[in-house]
Amino acid sequence: MFDSPLSASAYEVLQVVPDISDDELRKAYRLRLRQTHPDTGGDAVLFVQVQRAWELVGTADARAAYDRGHGFADVRYAPEWYAGGTDAADSGGGAGGDSGAGGWRPPHRPADTRPRARSFGQPGGWRRERYLTLMREWVGRGAELADPYDPALVRTAPRELKRLLADALAEEATARIVADLGMGYTVWHDVAADPRDPDLKLDHIVLGPSGLYAVLSEDFGGAVRVRRGELIGDGVPGSPVGDLVAATRAVARAARVRFSGVIAVLPDDDVATAIDEIGKVRGLPVAVVRRSALSTVLRRGLSGARDIGGNELFDVRTRLQSVVRFV
């Protein structure tokens, strides 16, 4: 909550404007407590959100820090964060290290010498670039855009812009998790399933001893449920699982490989079950998992998936490497 571009801000949860006085803010908080308290017929989830919002803006120091914000770029995935070489930086689309706005660069991180999965492509890169382009257009040509990730700016942007950034952040979060799987895994990010349609892509392909998996990273900004093999919810557009399966089958045909399954990864707070294997869609096993459970799933594999090892692992990697193109 509050850490996604699609999340309501603390002020929105308290139903006030950001420049409200401290006294009026306190009154609004007490009113929202009464309105949302479960004992008076309110919603328990909203009641907790109201309390959390007050923690963020309830004191002068906390409010100043919240208003100043840390931006939505500080946790950005960058190739230099892992010991996988420069493959990610050299392969296909991606925002690189410079946003092109105000000379912003991701914060420097110390070198990490732990063995990491070998990674190719730039996770979230295409959506970052698209976000930056549309944000500049929305603000207006010639307008100064010192920090395109400033929380105050992001919160006022149209939902389609916030969704682009939320998806990029989700892909980068998954990339950090899969990088930690170890040197027995190979990962491709932002893979084009159809060169003519950048929206039809695989966020990640993960190959390891447990199998070959296509992974979708999403943040819909709210609770998500599963019905008839598809994700549904107030913020869920289209058919994410159906599109994921279609893209997976396209890559499988091109590379002449067989995927073990597909995985949709969502923020922990947005799904009720840590690991939900929902059955097969067009012949492919599908699982919906919380982000914190992703490494467990990728290490053990989905139910019924066979292990891949030895020469087969090398062959599958070679086939994919020969056909993978990045958006």
Short description:
By secondary structure, this protein is α/β, with parallel strands linked by helices. The chain has helices spanning 10-13, 22-36, 44-57, 60-68, 87-90, 125-139, 151-156, 159-179, 240-255, 294-300, 310-323, and strands spanning 118-120, 186-192, 201-208, 211-217, 225-227, 230-232, 261-266, 275-281, 284-290. Helices cover 38% and strands 16% of the residues.
Task: Summarize the structure in words.
By secondary structure, the chain is an alpha/beta fold. It folds into two domains: 59 residues, Helix Hairpins, CATH 1.10.287; 245 residues, no CATH class. It has a seven-stranded mixed sheet, with helices on both faces. It is globular and about 70 Å long. About 9% of the residues have low confidence.
Overall pLDDT level: 85
Ranges where pLDDT stays below 50 over 5 or more residues in a row are: 77-107
Question: What spatial order of strands do you see in the largest sheet?
Answer: 1-2-3-4-7-9-8
Whole-number count of domains: 2
Structural class: alpha/beta
Q: Write down the overall geometry.
A: globular
Number of helices: 11
Q: What is Rg? A: 21 Å
Order of helices and strands: HHHHHEHHHEEEEEHEEEHH
What portion of the residues fall into strands of 2 or more residues? Answer: 15-25%
Major sheet details:
7 strands, mixed
Would you count the extended β strands for me?
9
